[in-house]
Write a structure and sequence with these properties.
By secondary structure, this protein is mostly helical. The protein contains six helices and no strands. The protein is rod-shaped and about 100 Å long.
Length: 131
């Protein structure tokens, strides 16, 4: 998206609206907006960074100066704050590796009885060897 005067004005208006400030858009500020937008950042990115900074300021983890326009529009700081705003603080949920193998079909009553008799025979044998 090309950076033009309308986009710069829209970004500045969004910033003022989201922060409750009324700042004039002088040439030096236009230039800072131009440099940031020229790097490919969008209005959605701007909204995300402002929301993130406001949340951090409310939690007293950041100083209100982080929202100062001259700080916000520094490309390195903006990039870092944008990336941090997307960071997951918890790992994504782990999908089950593989489903457990299906359980074998139930044994017929005769097979169950043979198994019981075999188990009893093994126990008798074990008991006899321990004496």
């Amino acid at each position: 998206m090309p950076v033009d005067a309308a986009l710069i004005q829209e970004a500045h208006r969004l910033y003022c609206q989201r922060t409750g400030q009324t700042l004039r858009l002088a040439f030096d500020r236009e230039r800072m907006w131009y440099e940031l937008l020229r790097l490919g950042y969008s209005l959605e990115d701007l909204r995300a960074v402002i929301t993130y900074l406001q949340r951090e300021i409310r939690a007293q983890r950041r100083n209100v100066g982080a929202l100062k326009l001259s700080n916000l529009l520094q490309p390195d700081r903006f990039e870092e704050d944008l990336q941090i705003s997307h960071v997951r603080l918890r790992p994504p949920p782990v999908a089950p590796a593989t489903p457990p193998p299906p359980s074998p079909p139930p044994l017929a009553p005769a097979q169950q009885e043979r198994g019981r008799q075999r188990a009893l025979e093994c126990l008798r044998h074990l008991k006899a060897t321990l004496r």
